[in-house]
Amino acid sequence: MNATASATAANSSFYSQTQCRLSSDIRGSIPFSKMKRFLFFNDVHPRNSPLVLVPRAADPNTGKDSNVGDDEVQKQQRVMQQPPMSLSLDDVNPVGLGRKSRQLFDEVWRKFSGLGQISRTIRSDDQEALDALLVREGPMCEFAIPGAQNTTVLVVGATSRIGRIVVRKLMLRGYTVKALVRKADQEVVDLLPRSVEIVIGDVGDPTTVKAAVEGCNKIIYCATARSAITGDLFRVDHRGVYNLTKAFQDHNNKLAQSRAGKSSKSKLLIAKFKSESSLHGWEVRQGTYFQDVLATKYDGGMDAKFEFTENGDAVFSGYVFSKGGYVELSKKLSLPLGYTLDRYEGLVLSVGGNGRSYVLIVEAGPSADPSQSRLYFARISTKVGFCRVRVPFSSFRPVKPDDPLLDPFLVHTLTIRFEPRRQKPVEVNATTKQDLRSFKLILEYIKALPTGQETDFVLVSCSGLGIEPSRRDQVLKAKRAGEDSLRRSGLGYTIVRPGPLQEEPGGQRALIFDQGNRISQGISCADVADICVKALHDTTARNKSFDVCYEYIAEDGRELYELVAHLPDKANNYLTPALSVLEKNT
Fold this sequence. Notes:
- There is one protein chain.
- The protein has 586 residues and is an alpha/beta fold.
- It has two domains: 148-261 and 455-581, 3-Layer(aba) Sandwich (Rossmann fold), CATH 3.40.50.720; 271-425 and 434-450, Galactose-binding lectin (Jelly Rolls).
- 28% of the residues lie in helices and 23% in strands.
- The protein has 13 helices and 23 strands.
- The strands form four sheets. The chain has a nine-stranded mixed sheet with strand order 3-2-1-4-17-18-22-20-23, with helices on both faces.
- Helix 6 (163-172) packs across helix 12, helix 8 crosses helix 9 (230-258) and helix 9 packs parallel to helix 11.
- The chain is elongated.
């Protein structure tokens, strides 16, 4: 036997031994997620290369190879006579090898991911096997998330198309799961694993949701109205979200009080305008951006007042006719002992009026030395009527560009300024003439929003695609009202607006995450469920709203999308890079 045949035989023997060891390991203790790299390793060996065998020692009695028949000897001789095939670059191309390994792994994954596809009909024996997997001692080691065993998640709408998949994904990752359902008949019970704690209640009833949030750390809201009746939409999509957020906040406050403290999820009250005395300390001032010499030339007059009306409203109103002029309402803050604004991520104002825009100014620096203070500003817009405006501290910019970024710890003065410039007409009665130089601002309260690293409440909303045009406006109005209730609750939130839902396996196609109501494709229920579960501990998902759908090619001039490849692998953290480029507090 020549040197080439000996080397090929040695390689074949080594590969056979290695493959046997790998097969034994895969059957034995190797975790499931490691199988992908082993499939890749096995695929390195070219399938079309000849198998070169080393002849065994001849039997001294017969002259033939021991334990080898005549047919086998002839086959071995024919194989040995064939010239060995040489390896080409295509046979060892890492791209091709990776594609082959992914194809093999995807086939295994599709079979395994059937655990999460609840939309198909499940036989009773399959259901028992699945439940046995979910209720056994300890979660699957490769799917467990650190801290999941100490986290209880309440799934609202657990029997919905997305909710059923969310429940099983949470169970596989080691979470304790509670399910809020309207009725617990046998059909509903059969849809959920036996280890899930079922709570019977109606999201429209505040008394029943209180029991549901007891002992919960996070909430995933998948419930949706089953009809387009206005009352049903209001009860589930709007009032239901409000009731859950309020009950969850009350539960957190109750726990904090038992520990002689205050919930970290509670807002800090800075000012509440409920009486005449609450206006004390607020100062009305006037000014101009021009020098004093030019101020008189363009002086058209300005005036403002801050008063408590007979209707029980604190109203800041007036007009500015002077070019370059402004009026403002200011106060030096007095926070409770032991509280500083660096423990909070922004401000929320509950205001009403005629829809003007304002400049919010904070003064930061050592309180003992006003000369060292610096000014920071952020522009806010209001609506006709009442609204709540969130202003994160990260949105404040220094008045002097060379000044450092705002440090909330040093904030000591708050100012609300009105200036005629940059005012835009609001949508009101077309016959009503608007004077953009006058304003009226009704103040209800100013609070600081608590900071946090993770999401407390995940809400599955909708993008409006796939809904019948006759009922789309009603549905979206209720959905957006529910979203607003969540934003102003003070809880860390993630709002997911998927495209039309499809019943197909998840993790098969790339996803688009976007803000701006521009998506045009659908998405599988399993992908939406996976996003909800991943968002629970993803810091980039906190306080963000986004649309999501399958990948597609954008139209010319509208290529403003963040494309993220969603590979069917537990270790693939596709959500962080997708959400890191999106706007916060949206």
